[in-house]
Specification:
mainly alpha; globular; 91% helix; 89 residues
Length: 89
Amino acid sequence: MWILFDVIADIILFYPRTDAKLKYHIAQLSEQEWFRDVHEDTRYTGIIWNNRKIKRLILSPTNMKLLTKSKEKQKELIQIIHSEHEKRR
């Protein structure tokens, strides 16, 4: 019983932290024009904030470093965003 309580408590305690981290990373990426253009498009904003696959990619510190430097990784993220948008339609 205590294990279940611990798991639930961890989820509740760490959720806001993850949300704040996502907000911070999106703000960092929004400083770059390639991401800002996609993020400001209303078709993709909700997907960026709510899609697990995209959030996992953005929340990773390793990926964040690559996204700020690598054109290839940037194209990969944009492609994922577009494909997730197509799945939603």
